[in-house]
Design goal:
Blueprint (H helix, E strand, L loop, with lengths): L2 E6 L11 H4 L4 H14 L3 E6 L3 H13 L4 E5 L8 H10 L3 E5 L21 E4 L4 H16 L1
Parallel strand pairs: 1-2, 1-3, 3-4, 4-5
Helix pairs in contact: 3-4
């Protein structure tokens, strides 16, 4: 069975209440449940993990390699712009991943336009709101079947 891991970084636990004009009103739990339903319908395994701590995300990436995860979907939040350690963890496990951002990072502050992950990602989805997660899941499934 194909396994997909959905990782969410700092402050994404606040979705639905954090700046709803920018991030929308859907909670992370609602987004994850929709992904779980789609994964179940496609007969694949999906696990989701969120942490505000960089080291916990890194440790979860390391475990993913041991668990046979075929693809990672990651919204690293602000760690996108700061974490070389997250980049190194993703390079270290050699699991293909798709970087997802709810907002269009290119329409925001200039510091958000740099990602330590984009150049090593299989793809990047930015600015499509929660739909970006669903599109990433679709792409991950399609790409995993080709492997």
């Amino acid at each position: 069975m194909t396994k997909v891991l959905v990782l969410n970084g700092p402050n994404l636990n606040l979705l639905g209440t954090r700046e709803p004009g920018r991030y929308g009103t859907e909670s992370l739990q609602t987004i994850v449940q929709r992904l779980m339903d789609k994964a179940k319908a496609a007969a694949i395994g999906l696990e989701a993990f969120q942490s505000n701590a960089e080291h916990e995300l890194i440790e979860r990436i390391h475990r993913a390699a041991q668990q046979g995860v075929a693809y990672i979907i990651i919204n690293p939040g602000a760690l996108t712009h700061t974490s070389i350690a997250l980049r190194d963890a993703l390079l270290g496990v050699e699991i293909p991943f798709i970087e997802v951002h709810i907002t269009n990072v290119y329409a925001r502050e200039s510091f958000r336009r740099h990602s330590y992950l984009s150049d090593i990602a299989a793809g990047v989805i930015s600015g499509l709101g929660p739909l970006g997660y669903e599109l990433a899941l679709y792409a991950a499934l399609r790409n995993a079947k080709r492997s």
